[in-house]
Amino acid sequence: MMCQFIQEHQGVFPVSRMCAVLGVSRSRYYAWKRRGPGPREKANARLATEIEVVHTASRGTYGSPRVHAALAARGVHCGRHRVARLMRAQGLAGRTPRRRRPITTRQQAGNTVAPNVLNRDFSATRPDQKWVADITYLDTDEGWLYLAVILDLFSRRVIGWSMADHLQTPLVRAALDMALASRHLTDDMIHHSDRGCQYTSAAYRERLDALGVVTPSMSRTGDCYDNAVAESFFGTLKTECACRHFASHTDARCAVFEFIEVWYNRQRLHSSLGYLSPETFELQYTLHLDSVH
After folding, report:
1. pLDDT above 70: residue 97
2. Domain housing 233
3. Could you report the per-residue pLDDT of 52-64, keeping only the tens digit for each?
């Protein structure tokens, strides 16, 4: 693989320098060049091409575990460590998050706070059994833009979301209305959030109470692990979508819409779902129910 790299880049860097950096003797390189690449090197070259295709399709976000899973889904079977090694040789890597955070959770004295019914049990055996809600922020040249989401813990699907330049109750209410419009609640459901004033407001609690099948649940004060799945989604969003500075609120809105509705819900492979997308995971569940009944 290193000899292949030297051959492909000999028009860019001197052969002698690349040999020294990569720890390959010049005699070994020229001997390899005379006899040509062997079967293993040819196979690695083909695999490297497949890896690049998958990594590009992931918008440059996938690390080796998801690239390996995506290759398997395409019928390309190889070792995960081999994928990681070839990705390093190609200079390919997943994205890592950046850190900058305003305060989005503000408690309101006197508002009713629900107990932590969820209690960090993020498992679910069916859709619409447990929802988690939270708020994050996006940095733009026009100021902060806030994003409220609701995820179904069964499939990790974003079933409701809303964006605004404020942190008032209508922000989270709009996300809830979207979720309710897209799902059909027939059994008891847990709705988990933090203790922010948006979620403890009378208007929001009355909307949940009116449904008749919802049990509110709230994280303990200052404990992000109580809503770890929502925090994980925001980490993914910041890494794969909001890793750049947005020029305007409109720019950010368009990027988030495309990320959630086109990529995250329908295409992105989730390790917690056996490397399936949320949409595919829910579809398989539905097909299984149909086959049983």
Report:
1. no
2. 130-292
3. 888 888 878 888 8
